[in-house]
Batch of 2 targets.
Target 1
Amino acid sequence: MRLVFLGPPGVGKGTQAAGLSSDLSIPHISTGALLREALDKGTPTGLEAKSFMEAGELVPDTVVLRLVQERISRPDSSAGWLLDGYPRNLVQAAALCELLTEMQQSLDRVVYFECSEAEVLRRLGGRRACRNCGETFHIEFAPATGACSAGSGEACDLYQRSDDSEQAILNRLEVYRRETDPLVDHYREQSALVVVDGSASIEAVSVSLRKALGQTP
Ligand code: ADP
Ligand code: ADP
């Protein structure tokens, strides 16, 4: 299964991708996570991406395409993958299409998670991640309880992403409206789109997602 997750920042794409990719045994490829990893390691790609990410702007298309191309060409991607956060504009959608044609692969589904802006603002404002296991939590909707899954026996070491500041969040939403939202119609026209109500609880969204993809619970 080759899937793209589409929807506003904070709608819950990463949260749902973690469970589904594990169920389907396909890699969860988050371009945001790949970029943050490059940034942490201080690679040339990370340095190039830094200022864009901090401001909530899109990193240049060529930079992100390179990361995606490298990642979906690895052996563990041969049976499928779940792309989370890519493509984010029409240029990236065309680049992905070209790349898949070259690789003689096709996209099975684009899942669009629909949600109001008020709700994604609540979700982004309370988002926290663990420095050790990398899992995403929410101070109200998905609190970290129990020991960290990295196996230290301790609780998770939570932090707030620097691009989850109020200014960067508002900019990301603006960029989403302008650049990414047009992809909904683009993929609808290609009959690849399935729409899931992203405003429900994490469990309810997970059930709708599997139904929309024809997966038995
Ligand atoms: P969120 O979970 O809030 O949607 P992501 O983790 O997907 O955020 O992305 C974080 C940042 O990484 C984005 O604001 C952007 O700067 C950069 N980024 C991620 N994916 C892409 C992409 N496909 N094209 C350009 N920039 C990207
Ligand atoms: P995205 O990858 O689309 O940017 P995330 O998966 O990081 O979104 O989720 C954003 C925040 O919202 C996280 O704090 C997460 O725990 C929380 N969250 C995710 N899905 C839901 C949901 N259905 N209801 C409430 N909170 C959610």
Target 2
Amino acid sequence: MDTEIIKIADSGDLSEADDAKLRAAGEIVRQGGLVAFPTETVYGLGGDALNKESSHKIYAAKGRPSDNPLIVHICEFEDIYPIVREVPEDAKRIAQAFWPGPLTMILPKSDKVPSETTGGLDTVAVRMPAHPVAQRLIAYSGGYVAAPSANTSGKPSPTVAKYVVEDMHGKIDVIIDGGEVGIGLESTIIDLTVSPPMVLRPGYITREKLAEVLGQVESDVTILREDSGQAPKAPGMKYRHYAPKGELTIVQGEARKVMEYINDCSAEDREAGQRVGVIATAEMKEHYCADVVKSVGSRKDEESIARHLYTILREFDDEGVTRIYSEGFVAEGFGQAIMNRLLKAAGHSVVELK
Ligand code: TXA
Ligand code: MG
């Protein structure tokens, strides 16, 4: 398949020419095609959420198991009514507070949504993204765009179009290049079909922020632990996700000890013929000795760490790194999302230094 790559201004200020391109891309979605597009979290791979053939195509392009449900993206709050059986007060409250934005709600689905889109579940995930390109594309696509992250299943989600091209070129109709995304980690998912509501995937909108609006909010115990004996409640969270090709270990503890430990391991691994990469904070970067050392951002700026994490994992792949060590982060607030993704990328391989 020929894939058309469309460049749109990064600024979010859409010119008339950009608008015409998005209108054409929306028409492709309406006709059952697939279009990758930027959102404020990560790039999405969009198809018509109400067309089961489109959902089949999405699973095929990603190589994703079809029991892993897709998120339905909308661009107007009112559009939620036809696709869910009821809109609880809690949904209205958090939509008021956080939509458009990086928040996905799970609600009981209506018959309008094919079960192919929801991986056979009788609930549906709904999100209203804030990115202007995403909003315009959804509107031109008929209002309901099913979009998982635009990566091959199992790889880190793309935060720049280059990695969408790498994974999806030849498999989908259009890739819209809107520059680097803002947040860099996928949306927070909150399940509103249970009481109290439960966060199934942590993201930029933290449990604490949701609790300010909703009162009590719980978190799925599997978010940071693999030893709970329970299956994650979001089907997609059970897969080893976000994974780089190189084997990744997280090293937690006091900064100096972490640095010494990683440098010792790095020397040994390099001796044994491995190509070693380190995910460092800006504060510690210059103290590491490895083949590739990358700063993920400053400890004082969690948002920069989130924005760069997936790109760094992808770059290590590009640079042939076979063994990766990462500093650990405090799993609180937005840091919980960072550690959740890092733990999954590492298959929960963690060394705790006392
Ligand atoms: O930020 C995002 O949410 C991005 C952008 C493109 O919007 N999308 C995204 O989609 O991350 P995806 O498909 O990569 O992740 C969706 C997650 C999966 O873990 C899936 O299992 C879960 O949402 N999910 C979808 N529908 C669900 C449902 N009805 N119940 C529980 N989990 C659901
Ligand atoms: Mg994904």
